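#lab-general

N.A. 3:47 PM
ok so I finally got the sequence cleaned up, no stray characters, all 380 residues accounted for. can someone with queue access submit it? mine expired

B.Y. 3:52 PM
send it over

N.A. 3:53 PM
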Amino acid sequence: MKRRTQTGGRTSRRKFLSGAAMAGAAMVAAPSIVKAQGPVNMRWQSTWPSKDIFHEFALDFAKKVNDMTGGDLKIEVLPAGAVVPAFGLLDAVSQGTLDGGHGVVAYHYGKQSALALWGSGPGFAMDANMLLAWHKYGGGKELLAKLYESIGANVVSLLYGPMPTQPLGWFKKPVAKAEDIQGLKFRTVGISIDVFTGLGAAVNALPGGEIVAALDRGLLDAAEFNNASSDRVLGFPDVSKICMLQSYHQNAEQFEILFNKPKYDGLPDQMKAIITNAVEAASQDMHWKAIDRYSKDYVAMQTDDQVKFYKTPDAILKRQLEVYDEVVKKKAAENPLFKEVIQSQIAFADRATRWEQDTVVGRRLVFDHYFGQEGVAKEL
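B.Y. 4:20 PM
back already:
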């Protein structure tokens, strides 16, 4: 009886160990099959010159994905013009010429006017982070997919990276009233094309890498791009010493990650989950890096480049809103999808901005307390 029990025990133990070994082998074999197939390689292009901090943001995102997948997905990001012109990114990704890209939604304005509502305009008092909240939780994501479907774009779009309010632009002399913009040859993009046209400017939409040369050659009288770091490295201080800060023309913009849809759909679900979370991680990291770098370059342009910054007068800001309203009414009447996006944004903004205005304390008072003329920060 005792012998049978021991034999039976040994038999059971052998079966258990054998089963465990097979299970372990299966666990080891599964990833090795993926490894045997090799990593998924993707060739991307950004919309930005290689020296622009925006291209750096694109590289940052790619590195996060590459690292988080352990090299199973390898994204290579080329600068604007390496494969297609900056404004050709959407078509190239949709057609599979590129596997993906990094840009902004407003650059596709010419294909579907409603696409510019992701960042090109005052955002109905939302900043870029609030607009991203609308995008994720207020129906924007579904509307964007609907817009891309309406133009036959075979892409998957993931938005991230809230941008600070962009300057009104670089000028030969400060502008004091809306009439000062009339007749200027001006560079902008998105719905801002219509807004500045409504302000009397002759608008030319150019990619970032071409703006400074156009200013230098007199093809433009004034222009806007985005931020202190981009503007400085692209050479704006070399052709202008006057920059007007604060504007409603691009108050709530964010970046766009584009995938070719068949390429994206073919990825394993786990890899898609990593990408989704990498987008959100990169979004906050980009926001932190922008605060650090933009503020440094803002100071450097004043101390080293002798740039003078002026606040855009309220009269110009108010006129921007009036012209924007006229443009929106016209576009909404022409394009039902445009109207659908506007109504969705307004519904979300009415709630979210009301909460923000009532809840978040103004920071000008505390700034003046510490850093104003009689600031006490130096005493602390």
